[in-house]
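Summary for the steering committee. The consortium agreed at its last meeting that each partner would contribute one worked example illustrating the joint modelling workflow. Our contribution is presented below. We chose a case with several input lines so that the handling of multiple components could be demonstrated. No manual editing was applied between input and output; the record is shown as generated.
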Amino acid sequence: MAYQVIEARGLTRAFNGFTAVDSVDMKVGEGEIFGLLGPNGAGKTTTIRMLACLIRPSRGNAYVCGIDILSPAGAGRIRGMVGILNENPGFYDTLSAYKNLRFYADLYHMERHKANRSIEHYLSLFGLWSLRDAPIAGFSRGMRQKLALARCLIHEPRLLFMDEPTSGLDPESARTVRDSIRSIKKEGRTILLCTHNLDEAERLCDRIAIMNRRILEVGPPHMLKRSMDRKVIIRLERMSDRILSMLDGMDGVRNVEKEGDSLVLEVDNPESNNADIINSIVRVGGRIQFVSERGQSLEDVYLRLVGGRHVR
Amino acid sequence: MSLDKIMAIMGKEFDEIMKNKYILGSLVAIPLLFSLLLPASLIAPVVFYPEAYLNTNETSFAAIASGNGDAPQDALILFFMKAIIPFFMMLPAILPTIVASYSIIGEKRNRTLEPLLAAPVSVYDILAGKALSAIIPALAATWLSALLFCVVAEAIIYVGLRRIIFPDVAIWLLGMLVLAPLLAFMGIMIAIIISSRVNDPRVAQQVSAILVVPIMAFFVGQMSGFLLIDLKVMAGAAALMVILDAVVLVLGKSLFDREEILTRWR
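What follows is the complete predicted structure of the assembly.
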């Protein structure tokens, strides 16, 4: 079994009686990009803050890099092993990019030569080395985001928490950040990525948890898309009412729609039901040209879960 | 607590102070003003126009002038040199609040509190780094200002009287080395507590300025003869400040929590 970098059990956080995160169970393996997908106020940031030992859970517990987040001594160790990229990264605007990073390197107790090498490496990687002595006040949103990424990487953390890393970025900067996330994964680091950008989550994440204060569904993107409302498309040589009436009410078939000479079926379990459906169509004289699956988009899954099972 | 991390925070704070013209200006201008204006307005008149005080019907001045065996003019000069001490106690109370309010509110405005708190650094390291980076320049400015005041005052006395009249060194040392740091600590704590709740450094400074009122009461007390500054009074004030500092430390302690800072300091 892969080493679990994050293991949360019943993680709950309430603020003045309002439950922001409710009984979150989660396991994130080493080297995995795990997405937390949810609307604003779904508790993604609060979950990150609990896992990074910035706030305490009201109930439940979690282990990050094998360390108990509730242990006071462990909290400091966890903070030293993780990096956090906030949605709106702040910097000391009057100071230069180099001085900002140097300050954080000192807080992470990095040796001088190692810190300097790391700062140079990441500033160069994000194309900011030539601007190292410029005050951050003049940096664009994209440059600040790249610098924030450099800041959360300079101490070589094992686990990265990224909260909306491409939010508000132009397409080119967003792409740079996404490419960086992929290279970080290649280095074997684990990433917990909070986003409400479905396309980004699908492209980057190995697994996604859709949450709205509690985890509604977890799985790899392709499995999530297959987890509900899978539709089977059967193209017939010729449509007939006999086929339609036979399918209507058949076990395992939840809905039948006609689209020209094609049938669009909502089936409980296509893997076990499809053979019976096809046999039945053939028995009533139907001639099948193609059978295919119409997958749900992640957006469909997300909206269905978040809209349909809104936690109150 | 980690000395390295406190030093790192102080280094960053000093870098920021050097870039902030308002803070730098305040650290230089206010002490300079005190060093030059106070001798000119309070010492020079006694040196050059002593009759204005010696011939007055004001009983306290007459009593002081004939009080302790010194020549009447010397007694008055010594009196004013003690009366001026509360002004130099204002500096350590005011200057750190300016630095600290910009520092704490600057963190909130720049949204740097979360990355700072996410680093493996204790809240006490952060607060110690910030407090020291406010106290050190404030005390340095106070001490330099007091030294400059003494030089200017002695120069005025020498020009007018062709001799030197030393101030009461014990009282000045007690004020500068004991009372001033205690007041600076109080100023910092009040600035941090207020800065945690407001988003404008000027508001924090205005509220912190309340600290000046009891200090000025010392000056008024001295001038009116109601509370003459001597070693006992200064030692009593220092003891009172120790108690008050402990009280604000206890009051502020609940604010110095990572979660409290992250979720409530807005």
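The longest strand of chain A covers residues 4-15. The first helix of chain A runs from residue 44 to 51.
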